[in-house]
Amino acid sequence: MSEQTASDTPSSQDHFLDGPKLPPGITRFWLIRHALVEENARMCMYGSMDVPLCPDSLIAQKPMYRALAARLPRPAHWFVSPLSRTRETARAIAEAGYGTVPLKEEAELIEQNLGTWQGMRYAGLHQHLTLPPHPFWPVGATECPPEGESMIGVCARVGRLLDRLAVTNAGQDMVAVAHGGVIRAALAHALRIHAETALHFSVQNLSLTILEHLPSGWRVVTVNELPGI
């Protein structure tokens, strides 16, 4: 019987991150929040409505797109939500130097459906709430808008998607251009925390969040990393 060498012995130290370079062969998600939407849309609760990006910010933030293009891995599988703002953000990153890649649409990446409250101005929302609002989100995590979904529901569907993609793309890099609520839901799933807690994360437009799926569990590498800053 041959002796087992130290390199053959699994160790938690194999998964320590001791430098800026991320090792290959890890199931890794690169989650990007879409670019800033146009000004009129920002005045209301747009949720899963399909609203356009702000044309001025697309020009002003070109350095951030170039930084993202340089930061993101190659090769990688690319995913977007059914909403045009994620596809247009992905296209801007491609044009900034990453290069054109196939974009696969995943329905589970869509932002929280706020039901009949979508399109409502924030100032009038309080009279419709049945629970206290979250300090950093328009509604509490357990609040379910009429004909919509709660953040609890968003966390469930995003968690199912991450688990599925982690299996079908094991050991590979995946870039997903999604939404603020979706990325917070992904953090809730990775950290096994309540949706109400996950809503305390700041997830800015064009920010990068990196999650890894390892045999021992999920690891959060970075949250709300702003490219080029």
Automatic annotation (TrEMBL):
InterPro entries linked: His_Pase_superF_clade-1, His_PPase_superfam, PGM_Phosphatase
Gene Ontology cellular component terms for the protein in this record: cytoplasm
Compositional bias annotation for Polar residues: 1-14
CDD domains: HP_PGM_like
Any one GO molecular-function label of the UniProt entry: phosphatase activity
Chain residue ranges for the region called Disordered: 1-20
Short name of any one Pfam family annotated for the protein: His_Phos_1
Superkingdom of the organism of origin: Bacteria
Name of the molecule in the record: Histidine phosphatase family protein
Organism: Acetobacter vaccinii
